[in-house]
Amino acid sequence: MYKAIIVDDENRSVETLKSIIQQFCSNEVEIVGTANSVQEAYALIQLVSPDIVFLDVEMPHGSGFDLLERIPKPNFEVIFTTGFDRYAVTAIKFSALDYLLKPINIEEVKDAVSKAKKRIEGKHTQQNLEHLINNLRHPRDKNNKIPITVVNGFQFVPVNTIIYCEADDDYTYIHLTENQKLTVSKNIKEFEDILANYDFFRIHHSFLINRDYIKRYIKGEGGTILTEQGNELPVSRRRKQEFLEWLSSY
């Protein structure tokens, strides 16, 4: 049985999530406390040493991220709760952590708890949180790492080693420097969302390119990109104008 706390400034949200966990996850998780602010949460974590923290991102007097900044080496799993905040969700995804969008969905809670248990058992928690905090401190630093799902967990790959991403139905090929390629069972749209702030552009429905590796643009109906490594990638006619504006705005 894992100990958990809920951190949220809205009592209604706390009670809703608490009720769902007690009804549907009671064999796996016990709620041992709740807090309505960063200050309360910090004191509660010291007191009960939770295994899992359900953490609201947006709070009036300090965000969930601020709480994590105060804890040098977190030894608990975090499941974030948030209304749609593109920046927050992207940062969370980038660090291979989980989140629940409000209004909270029962099945998503059950799934998030299941994933949290696996991460605790795999001892990935501290590393993932450290990546999140670093990515938040340096949101456009291409030394940041993206989590790539592999057979036994995650492989964290520096953004600056990704040349381009290539779609193949529900799979994405991540083409890296040093002639490396990773195959991931995720749609390329997920990588487009994560990498948008790191100078990547979706030049075609099948290709997402890193600006740093563009060597030349060859004119045509849509045109062609030549990478520093000698790859030729098509630019779709539909994306051409937006791509050229993006390229010239550097």
From TrEMBL:
SUPFAM superfamilies: CheY-like (SSF52172)
PANTHER family: STAGE 0 SPORULATION PROTEIN A HOMOLOG, TRANSCRIPTIONAL REGULATOR-RELATED
Domain HTH LytTR-type per the UniProt entry, residue ranges: 146-249
Keywords annotated in UniProt: Phosphoprotein
Protein name, UniProt field: Transcriptional regulatory protein BtsR
All residue ranges annotated as the Response regulatory domain in the record: 3-117
CDD domains xref list: REC_YesN-like
Organism: Emticicia aquatica
4-aspartylphosphate sites (modified residues): D56
Organismal lineage: Bacteria, Pseudomonadati, Bacteroidota, Cytophagia, Cytophagales
